[in-house]
Amino acid sequence: MAGVPIWSARLCSALLIIFFGCSEARSFGIDYENDTFVLDGKPFRYVSGSIHYSRVPNQYWKDRLTKMFAAGLNAIQVYIPWNIHEPFQGQFDFSGQQDVVAFLRLTHSIGLYVILRPGPYICAEWEFGGFPAWLLKGNNDIQLRSSDPRYIKAVDQWFDVLLSEIAPLLYVNGGPIISVQVENEYGSYFACDYDYLRFLRQKMIDILGNDVVLFTTDGDGVGYLRCGTLEGLYTTIDFGITYDPAQNFNVQRKWEPRGPLVNSEFYTGWLDHWGESHSHTDAAAFAKSLDLLLAYGANVNMYMFEGGTNFGFWNGAEYPPFKAIPTSYDYDAPLSEAGDITEKYIAIRQVICKYYPPPPIPIPPSTPKFAYGKITMNLVSTIPDYLEKYTPGGPIKSKYPINMEEIDHYYGFVMYRHILKDNVSWPTTLDIMGVRDRGYVMINQIPFGIIEREKNTTVNIKGVIGDYLDILVENQGRINYGDNMNDNRKGLITNVTHNGDALTDWLIYPLLENITLVQSFNLKHSYPRQNGLLSTPALYTGQLVVPKKAPHPMDTYFDMSLWTKGQVWMNNFNLGRYWPAAGPQIRLYIPKPVLNQGVNTVVMLELESSPCMHDTNCFVTFMDQPLINGTVHTSVGHHHGKLSHHGYLPSV
């Protein structure tokens, strides 16, 4: 590229707009004759990195963006997850952590351009690929990512709101957004509905105008681009480490004979799954490949540059087979989950500095971490003990089980209760084919086994008339990619059968998504019942005391190595899921903004087996180092279910 530093032009441009306003027309477009983007009439190339504002605490947005700028990037790429902004149909949220406008303005003030990917589908290993789960309510046969009128109506209303928010932030209007993606890797989806793509293209033109670069992204294979591209949209591709850029870009050239070469997702690492080893991409190999791409003249976006965290219930899942994404979305990115500088970051910066002058700021330091040590955990209650407290709206009565979407309970946990109408002798098989995704079967709080989606769907039970048959179901995250996204209902989606007969008359308890909102934990309780390796799902609480002086609080890590599987909250903030019994993630990241000086309250929902059955082990530990590459146990899900299926007489 020409000799003007990539940071210099855009920084001066940003400062001029901030302090003096837009004195002349701004433009961003494509020069097909010279195979380049043009910014205000001059050749332009971006070296970009992906960051998801939904995965980074808003108090840390500036820290992460500044580090990206200091790496030599001149742009960021960002997805907009529909489901965090419209959690219920017609109810929009652009405040606090959801304030995407503030995020984009902050990006602009730092001197970075924005490549925007508003969806409506984003994938991103995010819950339901960014779709709100209410799309499924009452629409058992809805066809997502198509011209289905029900889907189009919802997208139309969402884009009316979203695109109106971002239009003032387009580069031509004085903002940082230089290009906008239409859909997302649509060529990987079975629908191949060009009318749907035309609708999205026209919707964006109607609200954003004709002078914004609209583009698509697909894999670097002819089969992907056949259905992923459309006239009027610039075709880009994505691929990982390569040693022959010409071969990869030959595919783009079949659709775009002239114009800039673009890799919209140059993979710095890869995603993880529970029960599989942590993904790792060699820093030197990645840097060498980046060097080749830049030498070839390509525009590059590195996915991810900062991975972040799937706080709460926001992780996605892949299928088939069903594999949930862990809480950490570290991605082996140049900036770690906690925003720390890595070897890969330094290697990338060195490559960029071969082509452009060093950035005008030094590399910011990593955020400090602190090991706060052990705290004791205490039993609050089992889940069956206080169902009414954990479901303040009370149960829903139904002849047959109802999925979570139909009761407006989209995330977390739901308890299905049936009161036995007959004596059930041992061993009697209960068949629960339609569990989405993992269920804990109990009779009067005694655990009888775990059922799993498409793995272990039967369990042996025994009981007498009047006993409570409880099935606590965990929604482990909706499928975010592939042809099965329409099959994303959660809870129990089919009948529960006993000796071939469907059980009727159910009480359905949607547990609070933030179970820590229960007003009092001073409850009388029974102790969890044990059966083999399992114990009754239960809540535990403890207090972390943080020094009341600077520099505290600091980032820390929640070590779960003695626990099995569950969910954890800190000061009412949902840190996410833990599952050290599966791995590879053993410790959860706790960012500084979640903590207070003084007393901090921890609440844990342990689903399977608590170390508190042995008093000396009833604790958790706060560490100053992550552990996301721990030992994996691929058979953990089968183990409990197999024991339950073959059966052993519970101790009552």
UniProtKB/TrEMBL annotation:
<feature type="active site" description="Nucleophile">
    <location>
        <position position="265"/>
    </location>
</feature>
<dbReference type="InterPro" id="IPR026283">
    <property type="entry name" value="B-gal_1-like"/>
</dbReference>
<feature type="active site" description="Proton donor">
    <location>
        <position position="185"/>
    </location>
</feature>
<dbReference type="GO" id="GO:0005975">
    <property type="term" value="P:carbohydrate metabolic process"/>
</dbReference>
<feature type="domain" description="Beta-galactosidase 1-like first all-beta">
    <location>
        <begin position="401"/>
        <end position="511"/>
    </location>
</feature>
<dbReference type="InterPro" id="IPR019801">
    <property type="entry name" value="Glyco_hydro_35_CS"/>
</dbReference>
<dbReference type="InterPro" id="IPR031330">
    <property type="entry name" value="Gly_Hdrlase_35_cat"/>
</dbReference>
<keyword id="KW-0326">Glycosidase</keyword>
<dbReference type="InterPro" id="IPR017853">
    <property type="entry name" value="GH"/>
</dbReference>
<keyword id="KW-0325">Glycoprotein</keyword>
<dbReference type="InterPro" id="IPR048912">
    <property type="entry name" value="BetaGal1-like_ABD1"/>
</dbReference>
<protein>
    <recommendedName>
        <fullName>Beta-galactosidase</fullName>
        <ecNumber>3.2.1.23</ecNumber>
    </recommendedName>
</protein>
<dbReference type="Pfam" id="PF21317">
    <property type="entry name" value="BetaGal_ABD_1"/>
</dbReference>
<keyword id="KW-0378">Hydrolase</keyword>
<dbReference type="InterPro" id="IPR001944">
    <property type="entry name" value="Glycoside_Hdrlase_35"/>
</dbReference>
<comment type="similarity">
    <text>Belongs to the glycosyl hydrolase 35 family.</text>
</comment>
<keyword id="KW-0732">Signal</keyword>
<dbReference type="GO" id="GO:0004565">
    <property type="term" value="F:beta-galactosidase activity"/>
</dbReference>
<dbReference type="InterPro" id="IPR048913">
    <property type="entry name" value="BetaGal_gal-bd"/>
</dbReference>
<dbReference type="Pfam" id="PF21467">
    <property type="entry name" value="BetaGal_gal-bd"/>
</dbReference>
<feature type="domain" description="Glycoside hydrolase 35 catalytic">
    <location>
        <begin position="36"/>
        <end position="353"/>
    </location>
</feature>
<feature type="domain" description="Beta-galactosidase galactose-binding">
    <location>
        <begin position="537"/>
        <end position="600"/>
    </location>
</feature>
<feature type="signal peptide">
    <location>
        <begin position="1"/>
        <end position="25"/>
    </location>
</feature>
<dbReference type="Pfam" id="PF01301">
    <property type="entry name" value="Glyco_hydro_35"/>
</dbReference>
<dbReference type="InterPro" id="IPR008979">
    <property type="entry name" value="Galactose-bd-like_sf"/>
</dbReference>
